Amino acid sequence: MKAASKLAACLLAGSFAAPAGAQAPRPWLVPEMLSAAKSEGNTLTIYASMNEEEALPYWSVFQEATGIKVNFLRMSDSTLRARVAIEHRARQRSWDLVATNLVNHLSNEILAQFDPPQAAELIPQARDPNRRWYGVTGNYNAPAYNTNLIKAAELPRSYEEFLDRKQWAGKIAIDATDSEWLIGIFMHYGEERGKKLVRDIVTVLKPVVIDGHLNLARQVGAGEYWVALNNYVPLTVNVKLAGGPTDFWALDPVTLAFGSIGINTQAPHPKTALLAANFMLSQEGQTFLTKKGRLPSRPDVASNPPDVMDVLRQKKIVVPVTSANEQRKMQQTFNEIFRPR
Predict the structure, then answer these.
(1) pLDDT tens per residue across span 99-153
(2) 278 and 320 share a domain?
(3) What is the number of structural domains in the chain?
(4) d(Cα 36, Cα 34) in Å, to the nearest integer?
(5) Same domain, 118 and 262
């Protein structure tokens, strides 16, 4: 914990505001922050779950603006979190910045406190009160469908109406880690009623449980499954923008989790990680991500397509904030419902 406290003090020390009268080339590229980052050796290591097709062009913007080399290692969410935990216990100083879903489930011993100036522009839900993580993009949860196989008029108007779609049995799928969505269902319906509803849906429709939200979005777009009982809206939009015959529709509740970032308490380059975090939370950084359908956590960045947020805001949006232990218990409940023995 001493190392964590020392790093937190390092990250929080001093002001990173641009000097009066000075104008940074970009608002996120504060000269003092860049100078501090440069003093660490011009390199940064990121563990992330974003696919390389999006991530490599994205981080090339940062590299060209700063001259700092980015080492990007892509892993699935579950693999990434497991690796981070193992390396922390082994005291391996192997990464600086983590960018994945549910960074808040990593322990305080792993995540340093940090204050990127651009965080002030985020929606309140995307700012951790303890300053250990910040939401870069919003993973809004909603069902999705293949528009060649299902007509919009056939879509259920509530989760209860899924029980009337017996013809979809075996043609519907869900990601194996959608415990956050399940928490949202329980928050909306109450745990007892929500659990019964989801169990009934599983009994009637026999959804296939697969690994990977992007994989699920692509399989629905390819027609391997007609419907996703739930998926991340940005990934459905990603496949739609690429020409896939797919779309989402919003039902109450819309559960919101974040693709978020954190800095390693044992980071080899903590000041560089802080600068990279400031880039990711900036208007420029988030606007770039919308090219592939990601939904920003800044209200001053428009979604792509521009009407996505209008559709989502018509529904009840719930934001579960759970500890790692609570999430593990909910994942066990998810497994018991969707993978009964």
Answers:
(1) 998 898 898 999 999 999 999 999 999 999 999 999 999 999 999 999 999 999 9
(2) no
(3) 2
(4) 5
(5) yes
